[in-house]
Amino acid sequence: MRKLPALLFFAALSLSASVASGEESITVAARLEETVRALAANPTRHTASKDIAVVKLWLRDRLAKLDGLKVELQSYKSAKSRRLAEGVEVTNVVATLRGRTAPDRVLVVSGHYDSRASDVMDEKERAPGANDDASGVAVVLELARRFAALPAKQRPEKTIVFLCVAGEEQGLLGARHFARNARQNRVRIEAMFTNDIVGNTRAPDGKRVREYVRLFSEGTPATGNPMQQRLRRALGAEWDSPSRQLARYVHAAAARHLKGQGFSVKLVFRPDRFLRGGDHLAFNDVGYAAVRFTEPHEDYRRQHQDVREGFGDTPDHVDYEYLARVAQVNFVALRELANAPSPPRGVSIHVKQLENPTTLSWEAPVAKDLSHYEVVWRDTTAALWQKTRRVEGLTVTLKASKDDWHFGVRAVDKDGNRSLVVYPRPLRRERAAPSKKAKPKKEN
Ligand SMILES: [Zn+2]
Description:
By secondary structure, the protein is α/β, with parallel strands linked by helices. Helix content is 28%, strand content 23%. The longest helix is centred in the C-terminal third of the chain and has 20 residues, at 320-339.
């Protein structure tokens, strides 16, 4: 009986036609619980343990059962480090659902399947890692299942990689290997989400918080040359990195697709929790837009702790109905992004002369089902886009002054799927159209 109110609550949340029925939501929670319990049943998933090899094969086999996924093990030998007594093999389980029409545009969603005990070097102590991060891996498996289950014609236009990484607790090893490899191979990763610690709703003070999930994003990109840094400073664009646009995108997608369901995304404008890190940072570090999902209030008695009275990261402390909502947020954001056009290119604000109105222009992205564009803008002190203007062509002039507002442009397809927003660059010098009177200048 104790569980009934929660089930009814979440069943009521799930009545949206485009989403799952209440019954389905309960099934999702049950499936997530099964995955978390199966992962946590291993004595440990420490990256240097023998047990982790069993887990990677279990994950591979699970994903390989799904229709249309290509599943690979991506391994490398890590060096010995402060967190590893000796070099070990670190393996990522990589499941790829190839995009239907734009396979070279890639989205990545990850969780880390390694775990740790109180001592990060101890590869023998029990470490169930139910919330950190079997919860995130369970979300990744659930997303893989749902996208793979779509009929062929509804499969995403872009490629989605469902990624389970190891070595997170040893310094984001698996994620770094994947991200650097992708960068070297010029893989066009448009967005990356990591789900890490996404299942506990009981705050340390006993309060239950289950109405939202936090989403962390960097403001200042790790990459970029001095000129780009100077420009960011000059324009006050510290809140407009690609990762920040991705965070706003997820926030808006959740608000749109989960309307009236009592669940939202809380944006935190910081790369990660205070002085902490996660796998998305490995992607940020090589210049990809990447963000992190984490529950509202973490309980540190249940993270990185040996299992003992009052401590330990065990499956009983994961709220599976809540975890289902986190999976749903990932799903609606990924689905829209995976079917959206790529962002417009060359988005610029014209600065040929000093004037108050704002003229923007851009070039069309490669997209078959493009409908129109949207210019968005917001006050310089606002966190979220406040205004939207539909534009059919490739340029627009707005009364709103570029001095007082931040602008962005996105592409929209015929089904209403929106691309990520692009923050404009100043276009200082336009090539003046040749005047009729002017004679062509001879080159000396
Ligand atoms: Zn973690």
